Amino acid sequence: MGITVSNKTLSKMEIECGGTFNVQLSLAAAPDIVENPVDIVLILDRSGSMAGTPLANLKLGAKSFIDIIDEATDPSGDGQIGGGSRIGIVSFSSTATQDTQLITDVNELKTTVDELTASGQTNHADAFTNAQALFDPSSSNARVMVMFTDGETTVGGDPSPIAEAARAAGTVIYCIGLIGSGGVDVDALEDWASKPASSYVVVTPDDTELEELFENLARNITKPGATNIVLEDTVSPCFRITGLSSPTKGSASILSETTVRWTIDKLGESGSEGAELRFSVQHVGTCSGSTEVNERIDYSDNENNAVAFPSPELEINCGTDIIPEGCPIPISFSICGCEDSVEFDAGDIGMASLGKILQLDVTIQNACPNKRIALAAMLSEVDESGEEYSRGMKTIVVPAHTRPTCSDVTVRCIKFVLPEELNVSGGSSNSPCGCRNLRVRFIAHYIDSDFECCKLTI
Prior knowledge:
There is one protein chain. The protein is α/β, with parallel strands linked by helices. The protein folds into 2 domains: 2-317, Rossmann fold, CATH 3.40.50; 320-325 and 354-446, Immunoglobulin-like. Helix content is 15%, strand content 40%. The protein has helices spanning 53-73, 106-114, 124-134, 159-168, 186-192, 210-221, and strands spanning 2-10, 14-16, 20-30, 38-45, 86-92, 96-98, 142-151, 171-182, 201-204, 226-235, 239-244, 251-256, 259-267, 273-283, 289-292, 294-300, 313-317, 320-322, 355-367, 373-382, 388-398, 407-419, 438-446. It has a 6-stranded mixed β-sheet, sandwiched between helices. Strands 1-3-14-11 form a 4-stranded antiparallel β-sheet. A 4-stranded antiparallel β-sheet has the order 12-13-10-16, with no helix packed on it. Strand 5 and strand 6 form a beta hairpin.
């Protein structure tokens, strides 16, 4: 079958500036379907949330899967899956249906897929039960289930013990999840799938990718197990690799601050087999917001397997800087020629300060998203007896941030002018180099809220 799954996942979806997270690379491989026939059951979700384009794209993916298995096993092109392999279809919503038995007729399989309609709830337990019942206990064929779903279990029993019993009986379970309107429980998919789960579970938020996911799985099922695997993962310059764990199979090393290499002699030579590699990464540099972790992933093996890894994104929270007052606008001019002196009229300017200029920074902690903030800074000066004298107040509207959670927001360069003639801190008022004793108070309130007046009925 070749490489059946290639996956890359992150331990966190969001980190603070300079934070750390773990990366997990996963591979799964299995022997060639031509020399090792396999019975495959496609378990297809046709619940109500699949209506429309999700079901249409699922049908394209399932039919492409069938065509690829047929092409790899049927050199005569007679429309029959060859080599002793077979495919069956189970579809499910509130209950599951064995739409076909394990058969080789390509047209019948594809017609069955085309006739699926979406309605009802989601019963994964009944789906697994009907799929496992299709396998012939007396057959020597390998057994594979491909579970596709776009939602959580909403009716029926607990699917976990049924999936566990199927795995114990030798069935390999792949799970493809679509993050649709029903919401996918990724933990449940990983619980049902063969182990390591990361090698047998793929999740996508976009139904347009379903055809490609089914095609990749089918193409790799038809190839032999992989040998002499070399995988090099290079992360973005926004990150550096800080540690490496021993892989479950093969060996790994850190080539540079941004690159790891993983090598495996053989994978999936005599049966379906998975492998994992984990390494730790730290954020560095100035990258913030939604950032791709991948720079590139290079893969090769002796069988020329087609392998594609996802490119996960990480939300990096480095805070938000707000600068309410800009710097003075510069006046540009040039000095040319051989003159010893040059006169230039810079125009009219206003006096900005008769003494010191104070610029204050303040960080508002845990500011909620999508809400503007009214910020006031009140400055006073303190004389030798502790008496306070007002030196001004600034009010600022802090724009709303759009990060997914409450975050710190930094407001920079709140400017106050401190004329020397108002110096009450002691010392000579004629010297700009003396000490000024100041106090500042801040008040921050949300401007926006989701409050609505009660609706009264009289």
